[in-house]
Amino acid sequence: NAVIYRADYQPPAYWIDTVDLCFDLDPAKTRVLNKMKVRRNPQVAPQPLKLDGDELNLARVLVNGQGTSFKMEGDRLVLENLPEGDAPFDLEIFTTCAPAKNSKLMGLYTSNDSFFTQCEAEGFRRITYFLDRPDVMASYTVTLRADKQKYPVLLSNGNLVDQGDLDDGRHFAKWVDPHRKPSYLFALVAGQLVCREQKITSRSGNDHLLQVYVRAGDLDKTEHAMNSLIASVAWDEARFGLPLDLERFMIVATSDFNMGAMENKGLNIFNTKYVLASQATATDTDFMNIESVVGHEYFHNWSGNRVTCRDWFQLSLKEGLTVFRDQEFSQDLAGEASARAVKRIEDVRVLRTAQFPEDAGPMAHPVRPEQYLEINNFYTVTVYEKGAEVVRMQQTLVGREGFEKGLAQYFQRHDGQAVTCDDFAQAIADANPGSHLANNLEQFKRWYSQAGTPRVKATTRFENGTYEITLSQSCPPTPGQAAKEPFVIPVAWGLVGADGREVAGGMQVMTQATETIRVDGLASEPVPSLLRGFSAPVVLEWDATDAQLLALLEHDTDPFNRWEAAQRLGVRRMLDAIRGSGAITLDDAYLQAMRSILRHPKLDAAFKELVLTLPAETYVSEQLDEVDPQRVHAVRESLREQLASALAGDWAWAYEEHKENGAYRPDHVSAGRRALAGLALTHLCIAARSSGDTVWPGKAYQRFKDASNMTDRFNALSALVVSGHELSRPALDRFHGMFRGEALVLDKWFALQAGAPDRGGNVLPVVRSLMQHPDFNLRNPNRARSLIFSYCSANPGAFHRADAAGYVFWGDRVLELDGVNPQVAARLARAMDRWRKLAEPMRSAAREAIARVAAKPDLSNDVREVVTRALA
Ligand code: HT7
Ligand code: ZN
Questions:
Q1: Ligand 1 centroid – CA 129 distance (Å)
Q2: What residues does the Peptidase M1 membrane alanine aminopeptidase domain cover (predicted)?
Q3: What is the atom index within ligand 1 of the atom nearest the CA of 258?
């Protein structure tokens, strides 16, 4: 229960070379026999062997076949009388555990009468006593024994080397993993599963068997996951020369899972949300997410599994790199430059709406954290998404080819090792001598050690044909880091001339606090386009005029900055209204600009949809010193209504133009068209609310009923719910009736209602009553997320109530969940991260609610860390 510091890292005192595990699987009491070959680490002073354990029942310990003395230090099993010298010895440990009672979903647990494991980060110790740390790598042999009828499929990592029947209707399977691995990559699955399989031959000519396992009845929803896996294998070999190193690669889906998926060697375990998709049940976004998560887990096979982390402080070594790789994969698959830009904008939107607030709040931490109480709390957007941006900047600083060389160097140098973020950056730099990265490596690494989102302030000057852009960087203090040193910041820039043409451009690699870009010989003052493609994860403070932003929106060759210009125009109008009287009338220039984008003959529908979506409430709130979330919500709603009414004819055109897309395919072009049609329908239903028109809500209802795919159906349903039309009730009831057996669709049904715009405080009572719905189950993380998180974390206008009822609800749920699944509870606890920015009376009420949770004596470490930091 103590804080763990990165600076305290010590190599392990023992190595475990081989692990031979035998499981007698039984939901109530599973027996685990663990035979290990252990030896002292000669580099470390002799000391007792301390093995991690958690909620295990210990039955027997043998050393070289003999009983031995042992003691317990907390949860650790301590062995003092071990053979002397460096020679390996046999250690045999026999334990039992209770998978059916494991509601934390860490270690070995049951879900729908099947067995699953989740070992990252520290779940293996809930299966057997072990040196449960990523720098201890062993070769695993695993025998699974279970009732044959109940558990016909028995899977573990590696290759199946033996199987057969046993007495009493039981059977067994023996698996050998040809690769050494850390314990967090161990996995087993047992149950009544069916699989889609596909044999492939890789570029290098090797044959592989790919399998996707699901429950019977779900097989028809696995084609997209399988195609995504095939594409991932091909992409990693083509782009980075990284082949599949296994004869057999399996994916298994479970509906009870704490996160998205897990990259266990050769046996990835997935949340069903990221495997199952059919046109009837999954939206375009679901299809895209499946592609990227399947890719992400597959890419871990190299970035994470072949080269892993020395300790959990290095988590971003594998996660930042792998997010970067999955982002690149999705961009490459998207194809055209415009579709790549859309993906980039979506990724940046996640970073700015989720990671920037984290970096400014009580849980702010560097990409490579310095300390933690509970490592599960550090699977964050900072480690993942900001970590990916840090990798992306390295690519920017050495060039695309240089980065490929660097990655090759990294894998060659460290294959089979457990290493650090420093090792990664060093390999990329060493492969690119003379590059900006190599020349400034120590300074660049501040991205790993300094928390907080840097600000880059831009001021400009035009005189005698010379244009100057002065850039000054700073970084606000974060917990434990009062002052920051300058970062290396690549700023991609361009100048757009008065006639809309590009006049200059380049990359300024900032290393100083203040630097100036100078361009001579200009006939007239240009408009600067800065931080193109979002070349660094910073806030660009640039006091642009509306005219400059409108010029960029119309002419910039950089699609990211075109979108960004629209965002700035929208944010400015929202902030003016929030800081002013609360009311604002949208000006013609803005409306005309939005209209021209919507009607633009050349732009992609997906890009238009992004431009025409107003900035998120959370993003706008971050620009304010003090936030009244209800006011922010009301202002955004008001602007959306004006955009809806003023452009009603254009929305109607956009809807009619994009609503028909032929046979369903989840490709980028038709998905973009569906997204724009959906946005148009929402605006048309919103406009109908003020005009009293019933035609568009009627059309939306018809569309909802007749849609041939989930995207169109859900968009139509959402248009009715978001606009608050009375047809939303029968539509919601009908939707539930149509999909009562489809868990992932019911999650959407819960989420839509919990995330609906608040009208006079109506959402909380709906959420409370949905908690009583027979389909609600707090113990299932997906369901808890769909109802509770959609309300507390994703619906600020409804959650932050002046009567504090939202906070009371939050506190009750955090405490209730903590008794079931602390990891999920801690994620919910983070809904209050930004409480200090709230206006009164919300701020005091929020503090009180957090203090009530913190006062509970037997809180998990997970929740305790979050609420303690929030109150600090
Ligand atoms: N590497 C995986 C992390 C993960 C996880 C961590 C803690 C608890 C449960 C978990 N499930 C998966 C996921 C990934 O980033 O690929
Ligand atoms: Zn990952």
A1: 21
A2: 225-444
A3: 9
For ligand 1, atom 11, the nearest C-alpha belongs to 259
Q: How many helices (H) and strands (E) does the chain have?
A: 32, 32
What ipTM, to 2 d.p.?
A: 0.98
Strands 418-419 and 308-309: parallel
**CA 265 – ligand 1 centroid, Å:** 13
Q: What is the number of the ligand 1 atom nearest to the C-alpha of 823?
A: 8
Residue 120 Cα to ligand 1 middle (Å): 6
CA of 133 to the centre of ligand 1 (A): 15
| Residue 436, pLDDT score | 98
425 alpha carbon, distance to own chain's centre: 23
Quick one: 532 and 414 in the same domain? no
Which ligand approaches the C-alpha of residue 261 most closely?
1
* 419/514 same-domain check: no
In this structure, the answer to whether residues 427 and 473 fall within a common structural domain is no
Catalytic residues, by residue number, are 297
- The residue whose C-alpha atom lies closest to atom 10 belonging to ligand 1 is 259
Q: How far apart are CA 620 and CA 305, in angstroms?
A: 39
Residue 357 pLDDT > 90, yes or no? yes
* 398 and 470 assigned to the same domain: no
Find the domain containing 431 and state its range.
308-449
pLDDT exceeds 80 at position 1: no
User: Is 343 in contact with 289 (CB distance < 8 Å)?
Assistant: no
Task: Determine which residue's CA is closest to atom 6 belonging to ligand 1.
Answer: 120
331 plus 388 within the same structural domain: yes
Mean pLDDT of 334-355: 96
Contacts of 180 by beta carbon, 8 Å cutoff, 6+ apart: 137, 138, 139, 416
Same-domain status, 440 and 459: no
Q: For the sheet containing 489-496, what is the strand order?
A: 502-510, 489-496, 527-530
Picking from 218, 473, 271, 475, the residue whose alpha carbon sits closest to that of residue 360 is 475
**Whether 538 and 488 share a structural domain:** yes
